[in-house]
Amino acid sequence: MFHVKISLFAKTKSLESKIDLFHDKIIDVAMTFQKAIRVYLNEQRSNEYKKLNKQIKQIEHDADIIRRDIESRLYEHNLIPDLRADVLNLVENLDKIINKFDEVAYRFYIERPEFPQEYHMRMLELCDQVTDCCENTAIASRAFFRDISSVRDYSQKVYFIEHETDVSSGHMKEAIFDSDLPLANKLQLSNLVTEVADIADIAEDCIDELLIFTIKRDI
Amino acid sequence: MDHMFFIFLSSGLFLGWSLGANDAANIFGTAVGTKMVRFKTAAIIASIFVILGAVISGSGASKTLMELGAVNTLAGAFMCAFAAAVTVYWMVKSSLPVSTSQAIVGAIIGWNIYSNKPTDYTILSQIISTWVLCPVLAGLIAILLYFLTKYWLKHAKIHLLRLDSYTRFGLIATGAFGAYALGSNNIGNVMGVFVDANPLHDVHWRNFSLTSTQLLFLIGGIAISVGIFTRSYKVMRTIGKKIIVMTPITAWIVVVAQSIVLFLFASQGLEQFLLSKSLPTLPLVPVSSSQAIIGAVMGIGLAKGGHNMRWDILGKVSLGWVTTPIISAVICFISLFFLENVFNQIVYIAD
After folding, report:
1. Does B161 lie at the interface with A, CB-CB under 8 angstroms?
2. Dihedral, B130, B136, B139, B141 alpha carbons, nearest 10
3. What does residue B208 show for φ and ψ, rounded to 5 degrees?
């Protein structure tokens, strides 16, 4: 009986862990990014920053493998036929967040922007908000699989934090353009701030779709 | 005799075939339509359990039909089943929610009128009351199950994938139960009219034995199975998409509600249990599985707040309660006249 039970749910159990692992990757990449920006602002493109950048690349690569595995398993074993398209969509959207973290960290690596000391606090605050926003997106998405009643609570947090990032990035860009920096620097910094804030926008888009999927999941 | 028997039985077999095609689709339709269960799996399970239900528990509901009218010649039984089959075919073509049960009751009354036999109005009113009770009861059970399932899902916090496995298992298990209930409740429609004129003999083989009625029901059950394998796939695919957008879990609730109702109106064991406890019993009558489904779907619609409900379908169902037996009775009466006077067949034996 025990053996039968194991084989009956073995396939789903392994996929459940894969989905959990994928959500872990979002939290990993967000935390690593936050740390990397902190290091960059203090040490510029140091070895430590290079190491963290490499780590982000690795997380992104691992997440891609997990995503493909989830997608193929859902189709191969014909699982959740009614919600499969929604789950695939959700996983693809979450993957976009990870990709964006990688893209922005790499831009810092390539462009080596020089952030004057007075913007460090604001930049760190923006990064904290973006990280928080993405972490809550991952938690909301995880809840979609296990506990749909709490999806709304976490989604609300994401919306709130995303709005905060818009405000922070706006203030920062205003400050940058009010400064005496050369226009080329202003444009570069403003562009990077937009890129960082965009990560929260992608998270918000994920949540918009997630809420629709949650309505569909309700019996 | 045997040769003629099978010719006369053909109309019953045809009725069984159409029952298999349409009513089995009610049980596994959404599961197959939403690709939760493969058609082959659904067809095998439905066939086995329809036959088991018909042979083991089919006598209760068909006994009531026999009390309504004891069709006592094979030619008469043939025409009753034929009239019911033609009515069902015509109603399906006209996209009206049809019930084999209502068609066969009409045909029996047609035979009663033609053969000058009295119709037992107590039995008739009992049967008619079950037609109304069937969708209402299915709706109430569906509402109860809907809220219980919702409550359980909210608190159990099961992973979506795990829930998918449970739902698949649930759809197969309740599909089997539904098929058993369908066989036991609806075999009376298919073979009930042949019971009194049945020329078959009891079969004994080692410790295993089948009465002549069970043998007749086995043949009917096989006809239903053939209907399931040859025709129900098409119907299942449409049902899965046609009925209001249902999730696999609501589909499961609908099948459970329908199966319970069919079982309640067919189980002699339950009747005896209720009698032993001095509780009121439900009459054992063949009821419509399609109308039970409609009742259950309506119940879920109401439980969800009653938005986007198609109330006109209730009107269609009520219209079916009146039109189906009348059409069937008229066809049966006219056809019996032709069978007796043109083909010189004995369609009834006077008392």
Report:
1. yes
2. -60
3. -105, 130
With tokens 């991952």, the residue in question is A138
Instruction: With CA atoms as reference, report the closest residue to A98 among A71, A140, A130, A51.
Output: A130
Alpha carbon distance A202, A210 (integer Å) = 12
Tell which residue, A32, A173, A35, A41, has the closest CA to residue A120.
A41
What domains can be seen in chain A, in order of their start residue?
A: 11-217 (1.20.58.220)
Predicted complex ipTM? 0.84
8 Å CB contact between B234 and B255? no
The number of beta carbons lying within 10 Å of the beta carbon of residue A93 is 19
Ordered by start, the domain boundaries in chain B are: 2-341
pLDDT value of residue B97? 67
Pick A219's closest partner by Cβ from B161, B164, B250: B250
Instruction: Return the closest-CA partner of residue B132 out of B299, B318, B281.
Output: B318
What is the pTM assigned to this prediction? 0.83
Contact by Cβ (8 Å): B236, B28: yes
Instruction: Compute the distance between CA of residue B35 and CA of residue A210 in angstroms, rounded to an integer.
Output: 23
pLDDT, tens digit (0-9, with 9 covering 90-100), for B112-151: 999 998 888 988 998 889 888 999 999 999 999 999 999 9
Q: Exposure of B144 by Cβ count < 10 A (0-12 exposed, 13-18 middle, 19+ buried)? A: middle
**Tokens at residue B192, please?**
């009930």
- One digit per residue, pLDDT tens: chain A, 219 residues? 444 444 557 778 889 999 999 999 999 999 999 999 999 999 888 899 999 999 999 999 999 999 999 999 998 888 888 889 999 999 999 999 999 999 999 999 999 999 999 999 999 999 999 999 999 999 999 999 998 889 999 999 999 999 999 999 999 999 999 999 999 999 999 999 999 999 999 999 999 999 999 988 887
Q: Which residue from A12, A145, A149 is facing B154, i.e. has the nearest CB?
A: A149
Tokens of A13: 């159990």
For residue B208, list its beta bridge partners: B205
Contact A78 B248 (CB under 8 A): no
CB B161 to CB A217 under 8 A?
no
- Cα dihedral sign for B259, B262, B265, B267? negative
Nearest to A200 by CA among A172, A168, A171, A153: A168
